[in-house]
Amino acid sequence: MIVRLPLLTSLMLALALAAGSAPAQNPLPAPALPQVAFEKTTLPNGLELILIEDHRLPIVAVNIWYHVGPANEAPGLTGFAHLFEHMMFAGTRHLPRGLADRLLEGAGATDSNGSTDYDRTNYYDTVPTNQLELALWVHADRMGYLLDVLDQTSLSNQQDVVRNERRQSVENRPYGIVEEAMNHALFPKTHPYYASVIGSHADIQNAKLADVRDFFTRYYGPNNASIVIAGDIDKAKTRALVAKYFGTFKRSAPVAKPAVETPPITRERRLTVADRIELPRVYMAWLTPPAYQPGDAELAVTAQILAGGKAGRLYKSLVYERQIAQDTAAAQNSNALTSTFVIDVTARPGHEADELAGAVDAELKALRDSGPLEAEVERARNTIETAMLTSIEKLGGAGLANQVNQYNQYTGDPGFLPKDIARLRRVSAADVQRVARSYLQPNARVVVAAVPGKPELGPDPKALPVKALRTAAAAGINRDEAWRRQPPKPGPAPKFTLPQGESFQLPNGLRVIHHYNPALPLVAAELVVKSGSDANPDDAPGLSGFTAQMLQEGTATRSAPQIADEIAQLGAFLGSGSSTDASTVSLLSLKSTFAQALDVLADVVQHPAFPTAEVERQRAARMGALTQQRDNPEQVAAVASAGALYGPRHPYGYGQLGTEQAIRAVTRDDLYQFWRRHYVPANAALIVSGDITLDDLRALATARFGGWPRVLPSPVLVGDAEGTKARLVTVDKPGAPQTALRVTQLAANRKTPDYPALQVMNAALGGLFSSRINLNLREDKGYSYGVFSGFRYDRTPGPFVIAGSVRTDVTGASISEIFRELRGVRTQPLPAAELAGARDSQVYSLPGQFETNSTIVASLAEPYLFDLPADYWQTLPEQFRRVSAAQVQAAANKYLAPERMKVIAVGDKAKVLPQLKNLGLGMAEVRDADGQLP
To answer: For residue 428, what pLDDT band results from cuts at 50, 70 and 90?
Structure first.
């Protein structure tokens, strides 16, 4: 998997884009710089070990960085580092292909994956405390014994998988090939950053087994790696385990840092790239200082000032005031050889890329000529700092362990976090003006205009038959040790009690649910309303989402820009939205600013003004979002699926945006009346988790929400689904390299007593990476990058969905295999080992849902929304443990009826429909580009 993880101050901008911003008031006192207590040692063979002890939850994150990426690739082997990342999952001497995934997922592992960036490749898992040794055994066998069994069969399979990933993430993703073209224009072909991380079809297919073996030997030795273990550990025991599993491995030859000169851009480079899109977009990109070098943090702040959500200059000018843009973004993408500063702006319907470029240029000139206000710099710093702290709430994935490894590679100091925040706090308005003048000049950039048209995807060579290329594995590097041949036995299963929160009710009926979590000085809150799209009138799909969106667009005392600026000044994040059964307003802030930020949340919930001018702005924005949605095949498939299942007279039969007709027809009074009927305290709960006591929250909730008038909520009655009689629904995407598939039917509601059995059944069928459907279509057949299944549990029966994108030429074969797997889970009980793995995956992954304040809030919202018992989370683990094979099979037969399932296919109809003729699905119902009936 490719995950581009810019360095922390840049990484956090992705979160900051969702935030608002505002006029500076009195500067807030800077909180103390956070410290990460770590211990770093180096094994005799050069492997760096970094340990962090954290006993909040009975879980441990294991995160290994190999200091190799595309920066180390040889010419003609673009995408090779990423292809090799996939090879590390293909099987080792003691772990036959697929066994590691089954063992880890069966042990309750979460955040289990790998990723490739330009300068590194990482592999990570979060496991229950008693399974740390299992994770170390797996990672060690990959490092020490991959070469022993590496053969052409494994390489050919992963070439298929990676090429499917390219089709999905580059060629079939809107603007994917445009961003690749931008990279090509920034760097010469000889530069390792020239190609996208995933590489080209030709280079992926041309990779030879000898190249793979050489790459492993050269770059995957212990002396070119670092491992971070963070969580519920005993440091001495963990050091001993790492020495046991990794200590006997031989060093590889020293790896020299890439010696690459990046030629400067001295004259503007412009190009136009056609893609399957409806809205033009303009990209501007510059070469900037490398990671952690002078100018890097300053440019991260500059990006936030320009495009940090609704407080950003580009949003205010192009989206809010002139309404020529749909969205704006900017980021300092920090890497070792050089960084890039990228701005991208998407046009509103009726506007062109050249118009956007001129407007961006005007804002950049103003920034260079006059610099930012100190208030803008303070807002940017505060927002980024909050996001930085939020990123380390989580131990695994892209969280704390990964961040520490990142600091270790780029700075040599795993504890660099306080220094990182300190360099952020030092950035001044003069610094921002200086870097804008030094680096963001018109003659030093690439400008790419993305326009609607037929894309040029380049060569797509056919894969060679595996049998014709079969070769034997080569000799390994490390001596085999007999004790490695069996997985280690787990320690005693960790005992854990999931929180249920403490609850109280205000006199007006507002329920308040609290969880105290002092791990970091952060607080997350969510105001949850028990009305979502289920409350939409028949002729107004999308009304709940439109109403939620309008809450941030002005109150009786605050304008939309003031709300955005005030939230950003506090370093907070405010969001609002709607789902099938709920509407939410969410907040994330520092402990020190939570009271002020809660003032804003309380205001937008209780006193929205629905200004006419803002309604029209958001109407235009939603029309633009609807246009953007057409470009995304998977989103179109989701909309078509909802319509096919529920029909046009049911509120669940549409996406959250609704339809063009409904967006045009909605009035200010419609929005006001939806709010008036449903946003009432007796229909809502305030759920809070973080570094705040129950008494402090009680006082705040009483002060901010005690005056909210008590009103009885309007009843919500959802009728029966009246879906299409057709079993096959298609949307035509001529020339699409993949088909976005959904196989679906209505199944169960959230309160069903069959929930534990359904979740265990789904884990085995399509919920886990090692599930039957995904292993079949991805690992065995090479049809897809991934196909998974899941239930959406609503108050009424929600859909069961199997979803993924498959290669166009195997659409029919993929559907056949999906139905074969469905029949299999119905006709035969799960074997004992598969049942145990699926069951344990559900039990021991539960603590991961309580790792961050935001996920704790979301988890505590479920019992409230669906009227589940207060101790629901505390009793769920034992319910999972009791699930039997007979219950799983019974649930499959009760809820999964292949003969009634509908197939939604969004792709090249001329190539897809002939493949489906013999599948017994009947005549196809053809829907329009939005997924709606014409």
So the answer is: very high
